[in-house]
């Protein structure tokens, strides 16, 4: 069982490492490029389809500061695979080092059930939930990258006086109280 | 525990790693301070992780959730106090540095003095303009008050004049009415008398078949009879 542990390696000096987990591998590449371009500090981006990560790269892989699960609301598989991958993550990650990003929310008007399920999952794990629109324009990708970069900087300790646990308390997803009631359509 | 063993190792090796990085990169003091900040953040997180495992107090998740907002607000309060104090400290350091600099006679100090003097001149100008502004404003308010007062007085006078005018008409018309009626009654009476006399004269002229066309004096009287309107 190769569980990804947050503190099992030495931290990298002046760099931040982020892991993007996405089942469809559509958005990862663009987002990775935007992340690397945008920031002043060095950002190390690793891409994966799902956890557990392959054992061959275990030695060369840096310590991951932030794990981002990218979910596509129009497909069912991505939610299932993200759920499966959560098991391979050490609980130490859930104190602010995990983030959920949802794409194609505007086409999911028929699938409110899936959005609610994602919301419940994020709220129960106390993780922030970001919405990104990456299909329409390249600005969507840069905006999403900028938001991720803010969270990443805190998670890798580059922001003084702020720890990822503190930030997660400020940005965590909360479950709206009427989420179990039927919606209007 | 597995995690604590792994964590003790990194903390020991941290110094070695930092020394390596410095010799490799040749970093500036600002970069080194930043890296130091980053490392202290990491160490803080690791110590949090270690301490989390130690106090095994069993409580339900909902209890923990209830206590969370209090802790967060306390944390925010302390952070704010710390931040404000740091700001104040930085301000004091800056002013001290500026003061020290001004005591020397560098070109930099001369530039600082020039900037300071310009600030003084601008500030006194601002003060003058503000005083002027205030005086003008006061004058305007005075004038507005006077105008309002005058308007009020005008209104009062207009009301008085209207009252007087309405009062004057009424008593005069009262007296006049009775006189007017009397005069009209007399007029009516005399009109009727005249009409009757005229009718009588006309009757006589017609009945006696007097030839009034030939006699000039008679003709005049007869013509006036025709002209006179017969009032019924």
Polypeptide structure, described:
Chain B: Residues 119-163 form a coiled coil. Chain B: Belongs to the CENP-H/MCM16 family. Chain B: InterPro entries: CENP-H, CENP-H_C. Chain B: It is found in: Chromosome, Centromere, Kinetochore; Nucleus. Chain B: Keywords: Centromere, Chromosome, Coiled coil, Kinetochore, Nucleus. The complex is a heterodimer of chains A (185) and B (232). By secondary structure, chain A is of the alpha/beta class. Helices cover 33% and strands 17% of the residues of chain A. Chain A has five helices and five strands; from the N terminus they run E-H-E-E-H-E-H-E-H-H. A five-stranded parallel sheet of chain A has the order 2-1-3-4-5, with helices on both faces. In chain A, helix 1 (28-38) crosses helix 4 (138-155). The mean pLDDT of chain A is 81. Chain B has 232 residues and is mainly alpha-helical. Chain B has a domain at 172-227. In chain B, 89% of the residues lie in helices and 0% in strands. Chain B contains five helices and no strands. Chain B has helices at residues 2-25, 29-54, 61-103, 107-207, 216-227. In chain B, helix 1 packs antiparallel against helix 2 and helix 3 packs across helix 4 (107-207). The radius of gyration of chain B is 58 Å and the shape is elongated. The interface between A and B is medium-sized, with 22 and 29 residues.
Characterize this entry briefly:
Chain B: Pfam families: CENP-H (PF05837). The complex is a heterodimer of chains A (185) and B (232). By secondary structure, chain A is of the alpha/beta class.
SSE pattern of chain A, N- to C-terminal: EHEEHEHEHH
Shape of chain B: elongated
Question: Termini separation of chain B (Å)?
Answer: 136 Å
SSE string of chain B, helix = H, strand = E?
A: HHHHH
**Helix/strand/pairing class of chain A, anyone?**
alpha/beta
Count, helices of chain A? 5
Total helices of chain B: the number is: 5
**What is the 3D shape of chain A?**
globular
Strand content of chain B: under 5%
Q: Mean of the pLDDT scores of chain B?
A: 82
């Amino acid at each position: 069982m190769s569980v990804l542990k947050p503190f099992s390696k030495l931290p990298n000096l002046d760099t931040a490492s982020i892991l993007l987990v996405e089942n469809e591998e559509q958005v990862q590449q663009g987002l990775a490029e935007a992340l690397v371009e945008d920031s002043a500090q060095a950002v190390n981006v690793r891409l994966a389809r799902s956890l557990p990560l392959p054992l061959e790269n275990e030695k060369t892989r840096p310590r991951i500061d932030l794990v981002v699960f990218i979910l596509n609301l129009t497909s069912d598989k991505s939610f299932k695979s993200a759920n499966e991958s959560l098991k391979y993550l050490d609980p130490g990650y859930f104190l602010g080092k995990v983030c959920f990003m949802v794409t194609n929310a505007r086409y999911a008007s028929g699938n409110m059930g899936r959005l609610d399920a994602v919301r419940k999952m994020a709220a129960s794990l106390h993780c922030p939930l970001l919405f990104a629109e990456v299909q329409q324009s390249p600005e969507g990708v840069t905006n999403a990258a900028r938001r991720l970069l803010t969270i990443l900087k805190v998670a890798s300790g580059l922001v003084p006086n702020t720890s990822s646990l503190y930030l997660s308390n400020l940005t965590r997803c909360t479950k709206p109280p009427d989420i179990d009631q039927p919606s209007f359509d | 525990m597995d995690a604590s063993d792994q964590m003790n190792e990194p903390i020991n090796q941290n110094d070695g790693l930092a020394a390596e990085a410095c010799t490799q990169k040749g970093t500036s003091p600002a970069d080194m301070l930043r890296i130091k900040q980053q490392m202290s953040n990491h160490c803080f997180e690791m110590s949090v992780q270690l301490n989390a495992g130690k106090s095994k107090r069993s409580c339900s998740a909902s209890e923990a959730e209830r206590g969370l907002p209090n802790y967060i607000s306390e944390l925010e309060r302390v952070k704010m106090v710390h931040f404000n104090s740091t700001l104040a400290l930085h301000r004091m350091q800056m002013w001290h540095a500026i003061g020290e600099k001004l005591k020397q006679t560098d070109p930099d100090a001369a530039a600082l003095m020039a900037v300071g003097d310009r600030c003084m001149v601008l500030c006194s100008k601002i003060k003058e303009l503000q005083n002027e502004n205030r005086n003008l404003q006061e004058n305007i308010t005075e004038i507005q008050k006077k105008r309002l007062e005058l308007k009020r007085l005008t209104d009062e006078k207009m009301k008085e004049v209207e009252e007087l005018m309405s009062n004057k008409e009424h008593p005069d018309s009262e007296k006049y009415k009775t006189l007017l009626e009397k005069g009209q009654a007399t007029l009516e009476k005399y009109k009727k008398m005249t009409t009757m006399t005229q009718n009588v004269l006309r009757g006589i002229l017609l009945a006696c078949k007097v030839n009034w066309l030939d006699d000039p004096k008679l003709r005049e009287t007869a013509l006036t009879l025709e002209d006179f309107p017969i009032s019924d």
